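Writing this down once: the sequence line spells out the residues, with the fold written below as integer tokens. I am pasting one below:
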Amino acid sequence: MPRILLIDDDELLAPPLAAYLKRFDFELAWAGRPSEGLARLRDEPFDAAILDVMLPEMDGFELLRTIRRGGGPAAQMPLIMLTARGELPDKVVGLELGADDYLAKPFEPRELAARLTTVLRRHRPAAAAAPPAPPDQLRFDGIVVDLARREVRRHGSPVELTGTEFELLALLAGEPRKVFSRDEILNRLRGHDADLATRAVDILISRLRRKLEPLDCIKTLRNAGYAFAGAPVHTA
């Protein structure tokens, strides 16, 4: 049963939400303050976390940044932001800082359950059952995308990516030189139909490019979308 940590100062939210999510085989734990949440993430195993934006001690964006920079398993786990107003700037900031998804308050618990299922599926190792023969890898000049281990190496050095960033790179590199429109990328990765669509994809591409520097393997095609232009490396 996946363990989820909710960090939200609304003490009335957690009990009914925990009871509802249990129907979908999620175990929800609660922390009312960022310091408590960070301590629990450090000391306990969790599969994902849900962060409210409006929090005491530090806001949800600073908490998100702290988790992503803190190292350890929590730095790579799926993080979903709860925005009180659902405004575009909040969503953009969350995505820029490394959030995997967002949900505007008030929200339907069923939608949260669906979002959790989606982000956990994206982060689950591809070879969780019986180990296959060799790991499936996409090899290009200067970069290796290991699909089985969900790892990326640039010139032999590991590149730290969020789950969404990895899925975006795997999507583009899986079909080199194919042009993916922004809407197609968003539908393949997130399933949103929100007004954030175009801006969200641009932010993810920008983050991914910065992490892959100095490689310049993701190309923008004006009014069309994005394509992976790395040179394939064929092994014997």
Observations:
- Residues 137-228 form a domain with the Arc Repressor Mutant, subunit A fold (CATH 1.10.10.10).
- Residues 126-135, 191-196 have pLDDT under 50 and may be disordered.
- The first strand starts at residue 3 and ends at 7.
